[in-house]
Amino acid sequence: MTTGSSSKTGPTHKLVEAGITLLIALFGVIVIVGSLKAGINWGAEGPRAGFFPFYIGIFIVASSGINLWNGLRDDNDELFAEWGQLRQVMSVVIPTAIYVGAMPFTGLYLASIVFIAWFMRWLGKYPWITVLAVALGMPIVTYFIFERYFLVPLPKGPIEEWLGL
Amino acid sequence: MEELVNLFHGFAVALQPFNIMVMVLGIVLGVIIGVLPGLGGANGVAILLPLTFSMPPTSAIIMLSCIYWGALFGGAITSILFNIPGEPWSVATTFDGYPMAQKGKAGEALTAAFTSSFVGALFAVIMITLVAPLVASFALQFGPAEKFAVYFLAFCSFVGLSKEPPFKTIAAMMIGFALAAVGLDSITGQLRLTFGVTHLLNGFDFLIAVIGLFGIGEILLTMEEGLAFRGGSAKINLRVVLQTWKELPAYWVTSLRSCVIGCWMGITPAGATPASFMSYGIAKRVSKKGANFGKGEIEGVVAPETAAHAAGTAALLPMLSLGVPGSPTAAVLLGGLLIWGLQPGPMLFVEQKEFVWGLIASMYLGNLVGLIVVLTCVPVFAAILRVPFSIIAPLILVLCAIGAYSVHSSTFDVVLMLVFGVIGYLLKKCNYPLAPLVLAIVLGDKAEEAFRQSLLGSQGSLGIFFSNTLVSTIMILGLVALFWSVIQQGYTRLRGAVA
Lengths: 165, 499
Description:
Chain A: This is Tricarboxylic transport membrane protein. Chain A: It comes from Bradyrhizobium algeriense. Chain A: Residues 22-155 form the DUF1468 domain. The complex is a heterodimer of chains A (165) and B (499). By secondary structure, chain A is mainly alpha-helical. Helix content of chain A is 71%, strand content 2%. Chain A is built from six helices and two strands; from the N terminus they run αββααααα. The radius of gyration of chain A is 24 Å and the shape is flat. Chain B is mainly alpha-helical. Chain B has helices at 2-14, 17-35, 41-48, 57-82, 91-102, 106-139, 144-161, 166-181, 206-225, 238-247, 252-267, 272-286, 299-314, 316-322, 328-339, 346-351, 353-385, 389-408, 411-429, 435-457, 469-482, 484-498; strands spanning 183-184, 191-192. Chain B has a two-stranded antiparallel ribbon with strand order 1-2. The longest helix of chain B has 34 residues, at 106-139. In chain B, α1 (2-14) crosses α17 (353-385), α2 runs parallel beside α4 and α5 (91-102) runs antiparallel to α6. Chains A and B meet through α1, β1, β2, α2 and α3 of A and α8, β2, α9, α18 and α19 of B.
């Protein structure tokens, strides 16, 4: 598989890392706020529910501060990824998000068939016969292994109901 | 002596036909997981965990641990034939394994790798058989402060021994602790960090995090790298196997050293990856053929493979005897035990003897079965790798979704899995280690409980963690592990100044 673009441009590592570090710090702040709501002092049962996570939140914010400082000081001009590479990543993330979002409405089987077929046809450029064989084969094998043999129920939609599965 | 009797009982359990069947099935699935990029041991075990819900716990843990052994074996196949380490601990195997394959010695390299893996695992299992009951009976005397000290030591070892920057390791670990704290507080019964979201009442399940961080994250990384598989053919026959076996005893010193390194790194939760690198590095420095390392030296395959397998196996010792897993995969296995209502830790040896010894016996048998399966089926497994990534990737993604859904039969978990996947991709690219994050999610509740109970006993004084020799020793060991790199730097500087 090749990347979609040959140009060497993209977001810098430094920039993305700083962004991620700030997001982690924000998460730390949320943890601190949540802990304060739950109570961080001493109660009848000893330390209250927010006591432990409060200090965890402080550790997150403090270590993020150090990581941010270290990251900005670093002379790292490398790219985080090229735009073409990020496009490749997004070409998986977006359809997977649609697949996951559709699952409660269509059930797992129909969503999986469409998802596998799309992936193989669009990214792999396979002939329809191969696409159909894999896209239909996988859910059928899954049904027999998980639901019939190991008795693990999977989410079903209107089609499975209509088929009486 | 009592251990020996228990072990024989264990063999009687492991040798039941159903258990042998799940053992072979586990090994085959594990090798497939190890061979496929984007599916690691931890993730594979997490996805397949629901399959074991309908089994008796002993059979279930035998199957899951065999998936683990299989994944350890499988990593070597891709490293040697395709120069693609299917698992991080197989990276050091590529240094000499792939050059050997290019010289047409793939069969020799694979035989050496599998046999060394077996030797490493066998050494570690013997160690577990002898040491685990002792550690467990010792740990029975632990109070909350000692328990917390053990968790503290485990987490500090991660910070000190990790190759990632220490503050990134701390940040990742603390994120894990914070996620573990979400939901119902087990001591006061109060809700915390849920911010009114009902889906968060039960907190974050670490299995969902594992599937997302390791499974989806890895697929995204592979997509970005634009992986193409090009590899040599894998011809392996009885003549090659026997010939290599004749050659291997010459490297017994390397093997023994690697076994010890592996066991040590597995118990202190540094894991299989640093063990394999350390073992390779020392072998290169000490060996007479050190200059040839990297050009296709069989000793360069023996060293990392022995250490990685010994470490992977030894990681189960603290999990069984103390309830502290030594690796992410061991953490997933621990999660499995909790799901079946078994409490890992010293009491397991008292209350669930049949289970513990059945598992230990299955480690002996599972590795033997693994060796036979991989030696006979290499061409089949190598063929799996020739299936293009655009077919494998959606199948893995669907499997991940099934695994995530099955944990609580909830589609919200599948959404969480995807979120964790994107987070895993970003964190990994930014050099944040994921293993301590996962371990913190698994152990967060227990560590917090031990911490709060200790403080309750001491009326809030932290002095309780240094109140007797045992707890002080463990805490000081933890602090040494935490500042290990600083201590090492200081020592090197001091030596430089003296010289």
